[in-house]
Amino acid sequence: MGKIITFTNQKGGVGKTTTCVNVASYLAVAGKKVLLIDMDPQGNASSGLGAEKSKNAISVYNLLCTDKSILDDDVLQDTCIKNLSILPANIDLAGAEIELAGIEKGREKILKQKILPVKDKFDYIMLDCPPSLGLLTLNALTASDSLIIPIQCEFFALEGLSQLINTVRIVKKFLNKNLEIEGVVLTMFDPRSKLSFQVEDEIRKFFGDIVYETKIPRNVKLAEAPSYGKPIVSYDKTCNGAIAYTKLAIEFVKRQSKI
Question: pTM of the predicted model, to two decimals?
Answer without folding.
Answer: 0.95
